[in-house]
Design a protein that fits this description.
The protein is an alpha+beta fold. It has helices at residues 17-24, 27-33, 124-145, 152-160; strands at residues 5-13, 41-47, 54-60, 66-77, 81-88, 99-108, 111-121. The relative contact order is 0.24.
Length: 162
């Protein structure tokens, strides 16, 4: 099966690129927002945010259905771009089909535009499903940035490395 479909989701966040990037760069941060719906929880099973580092997440749906996904970080350019593979695990009907996610961060004054492109999807239907999921995640991230304490720990860690 040739995977030729892609979807792009854009969102403007009221935060500087470093703060938005930080939301993607730690397991602690992802645990606060990285689900497509408030009724879906995430468990971070593995998270190595480094080039060629692996991640693995488990989403628990209402009714306790669990869906696993994993991949590898292919490119990490701080505050600019993150590229990673995204592979669902069985029993998902699209298990073992490697897809690619590219997230770009663009400064827009005091805000950041994030452009997420999910490529190599097996069908338009699968693309629509993923677009809805990413939009839901961005809704949760937007809500997080409305809280002044959101990612405070991650921001302190970033400041310590400057």
């Amino acid at each position: 099966m040739t995977s030729t479909h892609s979807v792009t989701v854009r969102r403007l966040f009221q935060a500087q690129p470093a703060r938005v990037f930080a939301a993607f760069s730690s397991a602690e941060a992802l645990g606060k927002w990285f689900t497509p719906d408030p009724d879906i929880s995430i468990e971070i099973l593995a998270f190595d945010f480094a080039p060629q580092g692996a991640f693995r997440f488990c989403f628990t749906m209402p009714g306790d259905e669990r869906k696993g996904v994993g991949g590898r970080y292919e490119r990490i350019a701080p505050n600019d771009e993150i590229v990673f593979s995204w592979i669902w695990e069985a029993p998902d009907p699209h298990a073992a089909i490697p897809t690619q996610v590219r997230i770009q961060f663009f400064a827009q004054g005091d805000a950041t535009e994030v452009v997420l492109t999910h490529a190599q999807l097996p069908s338009e239907e699968v693309g629509e499903r993923h677009a809805l999921g990413w939009k839901g995640m961005f809704e949760r991230l937007t809500a997080g940035f409305a809280d002044p304490q959101f990612l405070a720990t991650a921001a302190q860690k970033d400041a310590a490395h400057v």
